[in-house]
């Protein structure tokens, strides 16, 4: 295995993303991890190394129209996904992406199952 050249720590993630990949169009994937220099995207589509892509991530969990669009280059590709190197990532974009990744990994509060509770007479 070759030596990795990483400028910042790799952070775990599990976030749905889209890759704008010119040879094929839009590809769905999952962000598996990220660092200040790049990301690993799980996808079943083989991507060509050295190909430009745009990583598209909803910037707000409640508003899917607010998107982060992050230009990158495919650095490696295999049967389970692709490594990307960001080409123009600002500190603000990285912090927004990291916040989305953390929010996706955070435990969700349990939702009460109201279908099992009995209604008293006269309650709607």
UniProtKB/TrEMBL annotation:
It comes from the Bacteria. GO terms for molecular function: cyclic-di-GMP binding. Residues 8-98 form the PilZ domain. This is PilZ domain-containing protein. It comes from Sulfurifustis variabilis.
């Amino acid at each position: 295995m070759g030596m990795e050249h990483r400028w910042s720590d790799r952070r775990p993630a599990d976030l749905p993303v889209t890759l704008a990949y010119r040879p094929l169009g839009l590809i769905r994937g999952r962000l598996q991890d990220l660092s200040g220099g790049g990301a690993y995207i799980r996808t079943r589509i083989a991507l060509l190394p050295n190909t430009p892509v745009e990583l598209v991530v909803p910037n707000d969990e409640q508003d899917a129209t607010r998107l982060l669009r992050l230009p990158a280059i495919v650095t490696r590709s295999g049967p389970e996904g692709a490594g990307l190197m960001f080409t123009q990532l600002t500190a603000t974009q990285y912090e927004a992406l990291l916040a989305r990744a953390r929010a996706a990994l955070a435990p969700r509060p349990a939702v009460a199952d109201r279908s099992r509770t009995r209604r008293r007479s006269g309650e709607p």
